[in-house]
Amino acid sequence: MAKKKSIDRKKLEKEMSSGSDENQMKKMLKLLGIVFLFLIIVWLGYSLLSGELFGKQKQKEPVEIQNEIILAGSTFNRIEGEYYVLLYDFKGSNHSVCDVIYAIYNEKDLGKMFKVDLGDKMNSKVVTTDKNAVNTNSAADLKVLDGTLIKVNNGKAEKVVLGIEELNNYKDTLLNKN
Predict the structure, then answer these.
(1) Closest Cα partner for 149 from 104, 98, 108, 111?
(2) Residues with Cβ < 8 Å from 97, sequence gap 6 or more?
(3) pLDDT at residue 54, as a whole number
(4) Helix or strand or coil: residue 178?
(5) Which of the listed residues 48, 82, 142, 159 has the most CB atoms within 10 Å of its CB?
(6) What is the pLDDT of residue 50?
């Protein structure tokens, strides 16, 4: 048994002195080489699939910024001097009449018009069902019926069309304009 312990001790001393650090370094370099090779293969595959490798880059579509839908809080603070704001629930029962009015304004170029979705939670606090509670003096106190058109001139409400009945009548007058 004494010989066995001395042999084990000799093997241990031999491994420690024979350059096990070199073996560890070689293993680490091999691993880094494999990882690097893997990354190159992934990059080549992506480049081939996307067409970047041969200069056939996909054309980027121009970004289109939507600026016709605004929040109720910005009804009176747009940079345009004179504009219209149509406030209605985009999915509500009045949406068809309001969509027609918006389309007429755009088609006949009657002025800049913005839309406010009263069905949006951020705008829900400005909706009222009581015509006497309507207030169009400022954004802070804004209260409107579903289906309201406000003509704003220099930050102040110049004309207000309240409710779906008045909007229907207003739509008819718009259709008769040249």
Answers:
(1) 98
(2) 147, 164, 167, 168, 171
(3) 65
(4) coil
(5) 142
(6) 74
Identify the residue whose tokens are 């081939």.
Answer: 48
The two structure tokens encoding residue 104: 């007429």
pTM for the structure as a whole: 0.61
Query: Does the CA dihedral 61-117-153-173 come out positive or negative?
Result: positive
Q: Which residue is associated with the tokens 């209605």?
A: 88
Q: How do the residues of the chain divide into helix, strand and coil, expressed in percent and rounded to 5? A: 50, 15, 35
Note whether 113 and 176 are within 8 A (CB).
no
Pairwise CA distance, residues 163 & 17, whole Å: 93
Annotate 117-154 with b (16+ C-beta within 10 A) or e (fewer): bbeeeebeebbbeeeeebebeeeeebbbbbbbbbbbee
Q: Average the pLDDT over 165-175 and give the result.
A: 79
Would you give the end-to-end CA distance of the chain in angstroms?
114
pLDDT per residue as tens digits for the range 105-158: 878 777 788 999 988 888 888 888 888 888 888 888 888 888 888 989 888 888
**69-176 domain in CATH 3.40.50.970?**
no
Q: Which two tokens stand for residue 7?
A: 């042999």
Q: 């939670």: which residue's tokens?
A: 121
